[in-house]
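Task: complex structure prediction.
Instruction: return structure tokens for all chains below.
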Amino acid sequence: TLAQPDFALPDEYGSLNALQWATIFESLLNSQRLALWPHIPSELSSSILSEMREDARGHFLSELPQANIEEAVFSGTNAEVVEILDALPQKTVVRLVNKLAPGTQSQIETSLSYSDEQVGRYADQEVYTIASTALVRDVLREVKSAEHLHEGNSYVVTDASAKYLGEVNINDLLNASAKQSIAELVHLPETQIDAEQSLLDASNLVRGSQKAALPVVDGHGRFIGQFSIQDALSVFQEYYESQMAHLGQVSDEDLFAPVVLSAKRRAIWLGINLLTAFLASFVIGIFDAVLVEVVALAVLMPIVASMGGITGSQTLTLSIRGLATGQLNSVNYQYLRRKEFLVAALNGAFWAVMVGILAYFWFSDVFVSVILASALLINMLVASLSGMAVPKVLDKLGVDPAIAGSVILTTITDVVGFFVFLGSATIIFLR
Amino acid sequence: TLAQPDFALPDEYGSLNALQWATIFESLLNSQRLALWPHIPSELSSSILSEMREDARGHFLSELPQANIEEAVFSGTNAEVVEILDALPQKTVVRLVNKLAPGTQSQIETSLSYSDEQVGRYADQEVYTIASTALVRDVLREVKSAEHLHEGNSYVVTDASAKYLGEVNINDLLNASAKQSIAELVHLPETQIDAEQSLLDASNLVRGSQKAALPVVDGHGRFIGQFSIQDALSVFQEYYESQMAHLGQVSDEDLFAPVVLSAKRRAIWLGINLLTAFLASFVIGIFDAVLVEVVALAVLMPIVASMGGITGSQTLTLSIRGLATGQLNSVNYQYLRRKEFLVAALNGAFWAVMVGILAYFWFSDVFVSVILASALLINMLVASLSGMAVPKVLDKLGVDPAIAGSVILTTITDVVGFFVFLGSATIIFLR
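Output:
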């Protein structure tokens, strides 16, 4: 029914916040999104767009009329506007930025001077800052009459050239005498963020600081804006969701992206996978003579590949996470590799015996059982070593291990599994 | 060198925060953790333990001397203490709780009266609360002289029986006259958290509220504590990391858990996988006659299973994420299933033709090529339908789709792939 042009929203929609609206929009088709858009509270338009996941936002904005986009852009904070502009074509960006009020325009230009990996681009510039020359009584008057409540317990202090001087606590303001100058109360916080730092590093800094927000400062010491713990949370969410998507070999974010676009994106992964599958087939093809001789080998060979695949995936998952969280480093890498090898050896020995016995009851061929058990153990050991080596190598090459790791690993466990299993069978049965 | 009992830490360790310390401890063996522990700033001990990931914390605490554990427990906030107690055996918990000061003891008992899935257990009780009968001047005096800076811009107000009345903003305090009663300034925030809500729901509420923290209130309206955006971030991180671990079929969190423990945990996944691998082998075994006749089938059959597996995994990843984020619901489920089917049909048709042609160049057998291409297309279509159906069914059964989804899906794509490919080959070649 949301797809109908005329409808009234139930009352409970009135209390939705921007995040909840964003989830609703993500769960709709573009046509439904367009029909629902006029019904949102207009003061939330920029927040809703910036809270939507990147891919869904992009598809929606590609069909939202220019007038609606402008309305959102003109009412948003600089950080929200940048998120919206990121999803628009360059030509539209230039046109929209030129239409902004001069003050906002220079804010946005500052943001856009940083790349979409850098925290400077998304720092919130609309922060209440105090001039170091102000007096305590002026600031207190200002704080009292502030229309919007300031989050947090301290205020940013800058000098006349916008250089960041530090912050002043509300406690100190209350304890100071009315005529004291702010310059006497200002202190530097323990942590500042460099505007060129990566979003993930900045998010970790905010998280570790236990503060609501940290100041973002450029190379000349100028105050660029604030990066808040809420911003950090969005960054972490995006990071984890993309890691999970990579593990599932899919890059779609918008559930309702057009069919052809989704098909194209996934075709790439399928194509890469086909290459590795043909490689495995090629290895099997080398040993086709023994398959004709002993058909049990063809029946059992997927077991070797599959158990190796799982073993490798387990080690790979741990080492990718260890690299991402910083728990895994050059000092403990050797130890972990040894540990993973031992784990694979224990499980390999146990499951090799189990599989060997089961296969014997099935085919009553002790040679097949022994070859199967040995190939399984060897493949699981190779899988654990590869699970450690592949992410390390990819990391050194500057490739995100989460993207390519599992494809490469599966190729290794398939090829090694089939090669060892069918190769040794060829030696034994066709000698 | 950290394993040596006597050593001095480099100076830069002095500026580490609890989160950074926690990461260091996670990256060490238990023996190294024990050696490093005496060197940490003692005021951070409880924070470091509570910031550590659950599994690593558990292993470390199982070897940390009781005296060190007590020291941490006696200096922690209630929320930190609960995180530490969660990792200790029940007997130790009872003994430690009895040793606490009466006030802390009742706080901890309140926390422990909620399950480890409920937000009430982890709400921060050490929040500065104001009695509704207090006067503005008393509160301002208190705020000015506060030893520790209060995060945020509002204060919690309760009545004599600890019932939650709402909050009072610092702006309103500054604007009020000194003799006004707090009761006149208090207002209810837009969102409160029920102490029995799940951690994930509570985290979403805090995130959506754009506030630094929300009040947690029990069924009788009593104020239990605050749940902050920092807490929410930890919950989200734990959630995403466990989802990723499930996708990699591994449940270890501590990289440095004992070898035997890790091996046991992973053996479960390997065992489940072995069952599904044997099921696939069983299907192949049904058709062993045709494999002997046409060896190309044995060579090519992994391609059908593998391409189906990837297709299914792509749809599965999207639908699991859609369910987790609330983007996927009963209204749009049908649409998404249709879309995923179309995507699989497009890619299936394209790759089936490609694979058919390649197989023809390899084996020069048009029957093999046609059978291969048809089986590939059918398996990819089944995979996309299964990728939608499996998470929905698991969700209805109350099982987390991320845990069992990919194993079930791989079983389906293997069994269907081998059955269709070898079954149709049997009909054609052995007719």
